[in-house]
Design brief:
Strand content: 15-25%
CATH superfamily of the largest domain: P-loop containing nucleotide triphosphate hydrolases
Number of helices: 22
Distance between the termini: 93 Å
Structural class: alpha/beta
Radius of gyration: 34 Å
Shape: elongated
Helix content: 40-55%
Amino acid sequence: MTNGAAIGWVACACDINPQDGAKMIGLNGISSKRLWVGPLALRCIQEGASGDIHIAEGEFDGMALEQHDYPAVALLGNQNWLHGFAQKLKAFKPVIYIDNPKPGCDQEKLKSETDIREKAISKIGDSFLKAGYENIQIANLPLDVKDVTDYYLSNPTVEIFKSPYEPSNDSETLEHIRIDVLRNEINIPQIARYLLLKYKIIYHKKLLWIYRHEMGAFYELDEALLDSYISDFLEAIDPTQSTDQNITSIKKRMIIFVQAKKEYRPEVQAKLAQEFLCLENGMLHIASRRLFAHNKFFFSFYRFPFRYDPKALSPNWESFIEFACASKHEEGFMPEPGVMLLIRNYMAYVLSESISHQFYMHIIGNSGTGKTTLGNVLLKMIGPDKSMMMKINNDKDPFLLQNIRGKKFIFVNEMDSSYMESSVEEMLKSLTSFDPIAIRQMYKGFKDARNEAKTLVCSNNFPHTTDSSGALMRRLLLVKFDRVIPKDQASKWIGETNNFETELSGIFNWLLEGFRAIEKEGHQAFDLPPVCKEWKKEIVTYSNHIINWARENTKINSYNGEENKPYPDKFRSRTSELYTDYDNWCMVNGVGKFKQNRVHFSRKLLQAFHEFITRDRMFEGRVMIGIRLKTMEERETEERELTTRVLGF
């Protein structure tokens, strides 16, 4: 009913099968091979209108579509489709709705009903193709409903996703190819088109990708594998025709066809990839948490290695995160919800297809605080094919990044140096900017690869850096794990095999809020909470040699309460004198190889104390106003006071 008016009438005799509940419905004296036409559809036909016509498997489903303002016709089951029906709908663009397998059925029943659905789609879709139609679409319903009626009764929060109908190869075409090959008259274009229908291949990022039905996603196709497909096809017909020349000719034509078709359109499909994620048991629509059947037209390039359950929970994981993210205060460890949200959002970002945000996360903490556990959970959620573990040190490894192409996640679980070489800094900046990286390959030359993996670094301490641009610190999401996990909790949370593996689907549900936060808030989803800002400020100070030197060896105007008074003459020093003292300090403290040069020294010193120091040029040369070196007497006095405070004498 719509506004009190009936959508349609069906006078029927109903016989319910007691074995499977199937309803045998038919009008008395009228064949079941009929086409029910809804009022909206009838008006469109009578008025000669065009546009979409919605074809439902089931008359009540047709009524449901009409009730939601979709012009619809309906069958009494897909087995009752007649090829002549296509001719009657010639002016329209057909959208075909075929029932899903019954939700919750066992694997054998699921496979059987899926095969029936695919055959029904092919039967109806091919009849429209033969009638001259071009724009044929298939409606994809969520897997938790059986048909259109169930869909609308479930209070839908997601649009029905429609994909173009693509015909399968027919036996007649194959027979023509077989006859030609046996006659030694190989039709290269015909074979290429046939194989492209058999193996769904697209061109994306200057690479060939093949759709693997058993995985529900596209995977990179190397040309050697494509050669083997072509060779197997030719050998099955006539082994003598499986020559290198024929294989190469067919392969080249296939690649030409794929590139010309431009089937993958980033402006459309990239947006779709932000809305759906591919898992073992279907395509998850993030916003509604509803699963759809795997479909090549989702253009997913990776499948997560676990099954998704929309009702799954993760109590162990959430208690672990709450424990690990607590910060130390005078009254003890206190929960930090802001840190938990930052970790949740970054983990969601790692799993997403987006590379719009130039950040990396670095977790510091002592052994046993759980920082590596978090990285291991991400490794499990993403799987080994798309993950990469790295150990970073200052020994230059020219092949460190040779396997980075195609990865989603880089886990640096060890940084065994307290200082970061400039080459390591540049590598981290390149990884977090997602720019092309020149990769050196073993036994080969260099190759450019664009990194799309997000980076997580875990270490006991944050290493000293020499980054003069500040880019690394701007991209840093710093988290500190202060709390060592007790042994009883460690066995509960981690155990011998990491107990969080049993909660992957629940953790995924926890992360879905992170996906929503990123979509809604954008860059602000990664804003540091106050406690992280304090940690980062400490780290910036600790890792900056110039700040450490200035605090030890100089007097700065502000520290003597002179902020609002003119700089006295004694707070003025030649830049060359300051740099000489800084140079000696670096040598004494073992950081000589990481010291800044004279130009960077002046700039970084002004950046660190810009509120209190200015630079000028006077008759004695370049000077810094507002800073002076401590006298030997002042340094000796401070050293005695420190010894007394620490040792008590």
